[in-house]
Amino acid sequence: GATGATGDTGPADYRSGASTWAGASARTITFSSALPSTAYQIQITDVGTLGANTSGCYSISSQTTTSITIRPKNCSTAANINAPSAFNWFVIMDK
Q1: What is the pTM of this model?
Q2: Does 35 score more than 60 pLDDT?
Q3: Which of 16, 17, 40, 58 is in Cβ range 3.0-4.6 Å of 90 for a Cys bridge?
């Protein structure tokens, strides 16, 4: 059959990976290469269990072109969570 229309170009500026929360400390993720600016979105997905009322709440204390520093927070109390647990991360540039 005939070839369809070409779709939009996908994102070229993103970084992703997996890590583990560092217990009582915030976790700094260093990118494989620098992004063009700090105008990007961050997605965190917990792989392990951090406890009740915690999933999806995070504190981002640093967002640079080469890294992010984050830590999980309790969604109900905003207290720091000091439990080691695996997570996946993804950052993509704003368009």
Answers
A1: 0.78
A2: yes
A3: 16
